[in-house]
Design goal:
The complex is a heterotrimer. Chain A contains 19 helices and 33 strands. By secondary structure, chain A is an alpha+beta fold. Chain A has three domains: 17-26 and 464-600, Aldehyde oxidase/xanthine dehydrogenase, molybdopterin binding domain (Aldehyde Oxidoreductase, domain 4), CATH 3.30.365; 32-125 and 198-245 and 251-283, Aldehyde Oxidoreductase, domain 3; 375-461 and 605-759, Aldehyde oxidase/xanthine dehydrogenase, molybdopterin binding domain (Aldehyde Oxidoreductase, domain 4, 2-Layer Sandwich), CATH 3.30.365. Chain C is α+β, with helices and mostly antiparallel strands. Chain C starts with 11 loop residues before the first strand and ends with a helix. Classes of the chains: A alpha+beta, B alpha+beta, C alpha+beta. Chains A and C meet through helix 1 and helix 17 of A and helix 2, helix 3, helix 4 and helix 5 of C. One FE2/S2 (inorganic) cluster (FES) sits between chains C (115-120, 152-154, 156) and A (197, 246, 488).
């Protein structure tokens, strides 16, 4: 096996590096199109209400206003996870911040003023925020069609057997076999916001009755053809991507901003640009799912889990962006973490009156783990088992099986991660620091240290279809045709490295087409951790196909068979005869090219893996928690680009990841239904001033199925962190905590230092 | 941002006359780090008709020593306060306080006058108009306070009646500890006002046509220990959840004088009189510090979600007494 | 005195951006600068200098950081009309105007892949630039402090620290 690659595994320059550091990179907010108008959204003041009347007369009269749309005059497009239940504008509002009317005007300022001239009368309805209250018979019904506010299970998204629960074996049998049984409620309901720096933005331009061009900051622009075209009456969409000012999953579905802009463009016949403000981004865009488990776990003395049962209540907010799809993946991921013969975990997706949840760095997995691991922790504590040993014993091994999102039983053919766990534990110093359950690692006056650990994995590295073309030009260039949007992972550059390696071309001679559905084949997008394996495989196959065609063309020139040829630097050689060489142009001519095609078909047999160790320090006199040190350990098969990988793994702190255990939360006033911290002062994020020590342990055990033996891990960096921190803080203060985030009030409360007698208002 | 008329004031007289002429419908702009956010989010019931730039007034950005003490112009930037040797030598507590404000970029433009006069950060008050409309409350002439029945984790735990927003200014806490006095100019002349008396439950003592021109700090006793502690979730960016500034004079281990000021617990900086009185004549020890800390919270009346702030007040008071120096 | 006696700001405004002077009429027209425009808006929408990014638009994230008379400031909370006398430098002004050569700091960001999505990067580079001008050989903690007002949600922070320290070393700092 070749291990000394020319580019693979070595740091190379990001192709877009120059543009980024000089400010030349054009994000969606930097683009303009001639004749463009600016869109604005009037947003609902109430969490739940019927619109009695809307008067747009005054707004329409304002000079410079080109269109004012209400639910009465927008096209009847519907979106949301099935059945589609979200209209662009509706006669009912279901969360504060929901779009009530749309304006297009010559300038942003005019559009903003016009919004204020629209008069709306509402008939307020009672609102509900808690999943269990929402299911009560007397709860307000958010959608007529969803009884008890529960969304129907998804039966098609991932095939006819789409996974919607985990029911395996016999829970009663597991109960009988258990040495310890614990029961409890654990929740991860602080609904952190992924908060990419760039707000959602789009330019939509309608040409004729059924051609729509969309420029957008989307993580998967090509998906509009798959998801939006059918929802918008079978029109043809040309989707053009631009670099995404980060997404963390949240700018994948994207119809929440694409459809309003498209409606305005349709109404005005002009391109319309719609970019959210940060407050809109925080108050009326994608947040994480709320997750609560009432569960029961049986465990043997040796850490064998005999059963797991319970209800998983998933709060999706005002609509389901894709919540039922997410629980399918979440249910699959739970089984990767836990080799357990008897399961009965029943999810329910419930609507409430707050901004909707959707995909955020993960697809249901982090939300499930953050509640499920604390539940398991209760059992580990009873059985007095070291959590590292528990995870080592229970993480899926080659040969183990699991039901994946398609409802099929897959057998693991990937890596055994035992070594990654051991190496991570060693690097962290787990043995020395772990003192047992609810015991601090060290005490220094008011400061107490504690350690904790969490795991996560996903079998999504090979999810969904990718297609790519690789074109070889006579002058010795390779052009990759693929609608892969750059959203920060460096994946466009990494894919170029793979092609350069296959063709032995200098990296500077490998190019990428712009992200444009008009010229590129189908691409689901760099979601999950599929970039390296799924997209990589499609592009590698295309490069290999192109090379095969090139050799077929040129073999006659050398009077050999194609198998006798090899290429490097845009020259073709006869193997073993370095003297016999011709440039590609001799085979392709200046007017010629050859186009290789590659396609990747889904494969869910190779789970990836991440373990996160954390050390915290708690000041028990103020309740302040400081994150001191983080160690992430994984095995990636083969590193493609070292700096891209470390960047991705360091990202475990951000995007609603580890810090959602510490201070990230969306705070809703439940009397008003409003999000109180929809700004970047009150929504807390990690600063340069307070970076924990970070160490990464990356093993490279080659993986079959990829030319460079690599798999992806980008997405899963965040998921194990929050529960690891929860465990660490519990150990530091000696009190079990089952709730996030660990703000000073919660810590002081847990320590019994908040005197309830002093309360004045009601709780 | 919505339009307004814009003036570059060339003198204090010009600025105050403009304020008077606009009858409350004009706003002074110093560093703008507070005002521009207020305007962008359209949180005020009446959008100002004019903005008056006061950075164009010469002579208001100096730090000088005089007979009365240290005089700091209202337009002095926080960065200049932090870097001033005079401040470092005489009032390190003010330097420490300024250092904890916001971020380097903001400290490069933010002024001392603006810091003292900044509007409240209550998140109901600041709720942006663009997400369903701004929120009316007592402080905006409305009839209710939403914080009392709502999300009040950062609100006042003492000294509040109608409005439970806390005074957001960090420097006000240090300046109160130092016994600083403001010089205030209006169309009818100037007056002085101790920082301790500057804040009112719904704002401050400035009349419609008035502005702060300078802050005078009486020269502190060189033997006095000054300290400031600010409790936040994150070091940069965050406003205080609780802060404490102290100026304590010791005579051979015995407390001769003490000023202990609590920040972010009430609509104004709060002097912990009982704790101050208790400490005088006592030898400082863990026990006296703990007792003083208890006394600092006497009379507190927290809301549903901010009782925890009491515990933090106690801890910080204990720690400023024990640390006895400017550690943050 | 009434407002009519005290004149509003001059009807024209000259901005010095990246060493070039730009004159504007004050007003509400499509190509004019309104008193209510922020510097960030003017740079982006009037001068086409879109390297300066807007994220929070209220002073909390540092994405819009530019240099004003050598100091890092937030262009989203500055009124353009109040910037007339100042020297403004944006990310576009860091390259050598003659040779087009990158500032060593920019090159160091490239060499360390000190970005992921890159949206925060121009603001971070400008803050770091201001630091290095004032303190050519900062410690790691001083860099953290200087960048403490810059948001990076991708957590490229660790690579950024490496890049700034390396640029300082190259620039003659220890
Ligand atoms: C992200 C962020 C974080 C922050 N963190 C903190 C913090 O930790 N601690 C803290 O204390 N503050 C904080 N602030 C508030 C910050 O705006 C102030 O600290 C700053 O000092 C205000 O000064 P300025 O000159 O920019 O005020 P401006 O915005 O110019 O003015 C503020 C107000 O005061 C009035 N005013 C200004 N000067 C005078 C004067 N001389 N006389 C009368 N009225 C005047 C103005 O009309 C305006 O209403 C933060 C702000 C932001 C945006
Ligand atoms: S605390 Fe004051 S500013 Fe906040 S809602 Fe109550 S009255 Fe309004
Ligand atoms: S955009 Fe200016 S600080 Fe955030
Ligand atoms: S690189 Fe994406 S926010 Fe910093």
């Amino acid at each position: 096996m070749i291990t000394d690659y020319r580019y693979i595994g070595k740091p190379t320059l990001r192709k877009d590096a120059f543009d980024i550091v000089t400010g030349k990179a054009k994000f969606i907010s930097d683009l303009t199109v001639p004749g463009m108008l600016y869109g604005k959204i009037l947003r609902s003041p109430l969490p739940h209400a019927l619109i009695k009347s809307i008067n747009t007369t005054e707004a329409k009269l304002l000079p410079g206003v080109k269109a004012v749309l209400t639910y009465k005059d927008v096209p009847d497009w519907k979106a949301g996870a099935r059945p589609q239940h979200v209209r662009v504008l509706d006669s009912k509002v279901r969360y504060v911040g929901q779009a009530v009317a749309l304006v297009a005007a010559e300038t942003e300022k005019i559009a903003e003023e016009a919004i204020r001239l629209i008069k709306v009368e509402y008939e307020p309805l009672p609102a509900v925020y808690d999943v269990e209250e929402a299911m009560q018979p007397d709860a307000p019904l958010i959608y007529e069609q969803f009884n008890a506010n529960v969304l129907p299970p998804e039966s098609r998204a991932f095939g006819p057997r789409t996974l919607q629960e985990i029911v395996i074996g016999d829970v009663d049998k597991g109960l009988a076999e258990a040495d310890f049984v614990v029961e409890g409620t654990c929740a991860y309901e602080n609904i952190p916001n992924p908060l990419p720096p760039e707000t959602p933005g789009v330019i939509a331009s309608w040409e004729g009755a059924d051609n729509l061009t969309v420029w957008s900051a989307s993580q998967g622009p090509h998906m509009f053809k798959v998801t939006l075209q059918p929802l918008m009456g079978g029109i043809n969409i040309r989707s053009i991507g631009s670099p995404v000012g980060a997404s963390y999953g949240s700018k994948y579905m994207s119809w929440q901003f694409v459809m309003p802009a498209a409606a305005l463009s349709k109404a005005t016949g002009k391109p319309v640009k719609l970019c959210f403000k940060k407050s809109e981004h925080l108050a009326a865009f994608t947040v994480r799912l709320g997750s609560r488990i009432h569960g029961k776990v049986g465990m043997k003395k040796d850490g064998t889990v005999t059963f797991l049962s319970g209800d998983w209540l998933v709060n999706t907010g005002a609509f389901s962006e894709c919540a039922q799809f997410m629980i399918a993946v979440g249910c699959g991921e739970a089984q990767l973490m836990l080799r357990c013969p008897n399961w009965s975990l029943k999810p329910k997706v419930i609507c409430t009156n707050r901004t909707a949840s959707g995909q955020v760095r993960g697809f249901g997995g982090q939300e499930l783990k953050c509640a499920l691991i604390p539940l398991l922790t209760m059992a580990m504590e009873k059985a007095n088992i070291d959590p590292v040993n528990f995870f080592k014993k229970n993480y899926v091994k080659p040969g183990d099986g699991y039901y994946w999102r398609d409802g099929e039983w897959w057998v693991c053919q990937g890596t055994d991660y035992t070594r990654a766990i051991e190496k991570g534990a060693e690097t962290f110093g787990w043995k020395e620091k772990w003192q047992g359950w609810l015991k601090p690692t060290a005490v220094d006056g008011a400061r107490r240290r504690g350690v904790g650990v969490g795991v996560h994995g996903n079998a999504d590295i090979g999810e969904d279809v990718s297609e790519a073309f690789v074109r070889l030009d006579g002058d010795g260039k390779a052009i990759i045709h693929c609608s892969l949007a750059e959203h920060g992972t460096g994946q466009r550059s990494n894919i170029c490295k793979m092609v350069a390696e296959v063709l032995q071309l200098p990296l500077e001679r490998v190019f990428f087409t712009p992200v444009d559905s008009l010229v590129n084949p189908v691409e689901i997008g760099p979601v999950g951790s599929r970039g390296t394996y799924a997209i990589g495989n499609a592009v590698i196959a295309a490069a290999e196909d192109a090379q095969r065609q090139l050799f077929e063309k040129m073999a006659p020139l050398f009077k050999v068979t194609p198998e006798d040829l090899e290429t490097s630097e845009g020259m073709v050689y006869v193997k073993g005869k370095p003297g016999a060489k011709l440039p590609w142009s001799k085979g392709l001519h200046y007017y010629g090219a050859c186009l290789g095609r590659g396609r990747f078909e889904p494969d869910f047999s190779k789970p990836n893996f991440m373990i996160v160790f954390s050390e915290v320090e708690v000041d028990v006199e103020t309740g302040k928690v400081d994150l001191i040190r983080v160690v992430c350990a994984t095995d990636v098969g083969q590193v493609i680009d070292p700096p891209s990988l470390t960047n991705q793994l360091n990202g475990c702190l951000g995007s609603g990841g580890i810090d959602s255990a510490l201070f990230e939360e969306t705070i809703i006033d439940k009397r008003l239904g409003r999000i109180m911290n929809a700004n970047m002062i009150d929504y807390k994020w990690r600063t340069f001033a307070e970076l924990p020590e970070m160490e990464l342990v990356v093993l490279e055990t080659p993986v079959a199925g990829h030319r460079f033996h690599a798999i992806g891990v980008g997405e899963i960096a965040t998921a194990p962190g929050p529960s690891a921190v929860l465990m660490a803080v519990s150990n530091a203060i000696g009190v079990r905590l089952n709730d996030y985030p660990l703000t000073p009030d919660r810590i002081l409360n847990a320590l019994g230092k908040v005197n309830a007698a002093k309360r004045r208002g009601k709780q | 941002m919505k339009n307004f008329a814009h003036y570059n004031a060339r003198s204090v007289a010009e600025a105050t006359h403009l304020l008077a002429a606009y009858e409350g419908k004009a706003k002074l702009n110093a560093g703008g780090s507070d005002l521009i956010g207020v305007l962008k989010d359209r949180i005020l019931p009446d959008y100002p008709e004019a903005v008056i730039n006061i950075k164009t007034i010469p002579g208001l950005n100096t730090i000088e020593e005089n007979d009365g003490g240290i005089n700091i112009g209202a337009l002095t930037k926080l960065v200049d306060i932090i870097n001033s040797p005079l401040i470092k030598k005489n009032c390190p507590v003010l330097k420490e306080t300024a250092r904890t404000v916001a971020s380097p970029q903001i400290r490069n433009v933010a002024t001392l006058g603006g810091n003292l006069c900044q509007d409240t950060r209550c998140w109901y008050y600041r709720y942006p108009d663009g997400i369903g409309g701004m929120i009316k409350c007592f402080r905006k002439g409305g009839k209710t306070c939403h914080a009392v029945p709502g999300e009040n984790q950062y609100h006042a735990i003492m000294g509040a009646k109608k409005c439970f927003a806390v005074c957001p200014s960090d420097t006000a806490v240090a300046l109160t500890a130092l016994g600083a006095v403001l010089t205030v100019a209006g169309t009818k002349g100037t007056r002085t006002l101790p920082v301790e008396e500057f804040y009112t439950p719904l704002g401050n003592m400035l009349a419609l046509d008035e502005m702060i021109t300078s802050v005078n700090i009486p020269k502190p006793d060189p033997a006095a220990e000054q300290a400031f502690l600010k409790f936040t979730l994150r070091k940069p960016i965050d406003f205080a959840i609780v802060s404490v500034a102290s100026v304590i004079t010791l005579d051979q281990g015995i407390c001769a004088d003490a000023r202990i000021i609590l920040g972010a617990v009430a609509p104004t900086p709060v002097r912990a009189h009982k704790a101050e009185e208790y400490l005088k004549g006592k030898k400082l020890s863990d026990d006296t510090a703990a007792e003083a800390a208890m006394l600092a919270t006497v009379g507190a009346n927290p809301l549903s979600k901010n009782i925890y702030k009491l515990e933090i007040v106690k801890t910080l008071v204990k720690r400023v007494i024990n640390s006895g120096s400017c550690l943050s | 005195m009434t407002p009519t006696q005290i004149k509003p700001s001059l009807p024209t405004l000259t901005l010095n951006v990246n060493g070039k002077l730009h004159s504007f009429m004050l007003g509400e027209g499509l190509h004019e600068v309104s008193p209510s425009h922020t510097l960030a808006y003017t740079l982006r929408e009037r001068l086409g200098l879109t390297g300066t990014k807007i994220s929070c638009d209220e002073g909390a994230c540092g994405c819009c950081t530019v240099l004003m008379d050598g100091k890092a400031v937030l262009s989203c909370i500055l009124l353009t009309v109040e910037c007339g006398e100042k020297e403004i430098v944006t990310i576009e002004g860091l390259e050598d105007p003659e040779t087009g050569e990158l500032d060593p700091l920019q090159q160091s960001f490239i060499d360390h892949t000190a970005f992921q999505c890159g949206f925060c990067t121009p603001g971070i580079i400008m803050s770091a630039k201001a630091l290095l001008v004032e303190n050519p050989s900062p410690t790691r903690d001083e860099v953290k402090e200087a960048l403490s007002g810059n948001f990076c949600r991708c957590i490229s922070n660790y690579h950024v620290l490496d890049a700034v320290i390396a640029a300082a070393r190259k620039g003659g700092g220890e």
